[in-house]
Design brief:
- This protein is mainly alpha-helical and about 300 residues long.
- It has one domain.
- About 75% of the residues lie in helices and about 0% in strands.
- The chain is globular, with a radius of gyration of 19 Å.
Length: about 300
């Protein structure tokens, strides 16, 4: 990395990964036109797992240690199985833009889980940020429910956001022993296995699904599912985790633009307002929420 800034190649990797991940919310909506949520998740990650499998063979990726298999499987359960099934089922009713805003609250759930499991202290500003972020998420859920009631599917998207916190806490020790790509590949493969329960339904619908839905599922697997992780793992070798994660706050804006261009979806005013409040809370937790460590 240059002393005066971020390398152009690293910036391009981050930007491309972020753009691909942002497109996944609209891609899920497109895929749901031909597949049930579980079937879409399985097809997406069979595709992504195949792509990473080819890469693993070409790069002679090392095998995981036997004692790490249980923790890697738990990471895959949180980061792949629970996250993507909850997000897909949530997006059956919640708009793509609103889903991206709720997912952006993930750092708040990470802060809460880290407080109790990793013993990381939160400042009063951090607890205030958590309250602000949750009020924004509640506003989004109300907007998606038509303004009169909370949309239950928004709770599923919130479960997906919470699962990212579990993934982070489980993954943290393993990322000291495995590269981001190695851990991503192994956790993705293990996280795909439970989705095989949807294989009979996928086999029954694959032949009759609209071409655009199949294309969307394959796109989700190859690009947001595999390529984006490869690009982001490259960026993580050049950037600190805090700098890399700061780019993620742009994701809801990109997701809303892509959803408008791809599926003609426009966010409701209350969704936008709730998203702004939620992101303000997330920023407060991230910037001023954690107490300084005394050594």
């Amino acid at each position: 990395m240059r002393r005066d800034g971020i390398e152009a190649g690293t910036l391009l990797s981050v930007g491309a990964a972020l753009l691909l991940w942002s497109s996944a919310f609209a891609g899920i909506k497109a895929g749901l036109r031909g597949f049930a949520p579980g079937e879409l998740a399985l097809l997406r990650f069979l595709t992504a797992s195949s792509v990473l499998g080819v890469y693993a063979l070409l790069s002679h990726m090392r095998l995981p240690q036997r004692e790490d298999l249980g923790r890697i499987a738990l990471g895959g359960l949180f980061g792949i199985t629970v996250y993507h099934l909850a997000l897909n089922y949530g997006e059956t009713s919640v708009s793509a833009g609103a889903a991206s805003l709720i997912i952006a609250s993930g750092p708040v759930f990470t802060a809460i889980l880290s407080r109790f499991l990793l013993k990381e202290r939160l400042t009063p500003w951090g607890w205030l940020g958590i309250a602000v972020a949750f009020s924004g998420v509640a506003a989004i859920a109300r907007a998606e429910g038509g303004g009169a009631a909370l949309e239950p599917a928004a709770a599923l998207v919130a479960v997906a956001a919470m699962s990212t916190a579990g993934y982070f806490v489980v993954s943290k020790p393993l990322l000291a022993r495995y590269s981001p790509l190695e851990y991503t590949a192994y956790s993705m493969w293990m996280g795909t296995v439970p989705m095989l329960v949807f294989a009979p339904g996928l086999a029954g619908h694959l032949g009759s699904a609209p071409l655009d839905a199949v294309t969307a599922a394959v796109y989700l697997g190859v690009f947001p599912g595999a390529l984006a992780y490869l690009l982001y793992s490259r960026a993580l070798t050049k950037l600190s985790a805090s700098v890399a994660s700061s780019f993620l706050y742009v994701q809801p804006v990109l997701a809303a633009i892509i959803a408008w261009a791809w599926i003609g979806e426009l966010p409701q005013p209350l969704t936008v307002a709730g998203g702004a409040v939620a992101l303000a809370g997330v920023a407060l937790v991230t910037i001023k929420g954690r107490a300084a460590t005394v050594t």
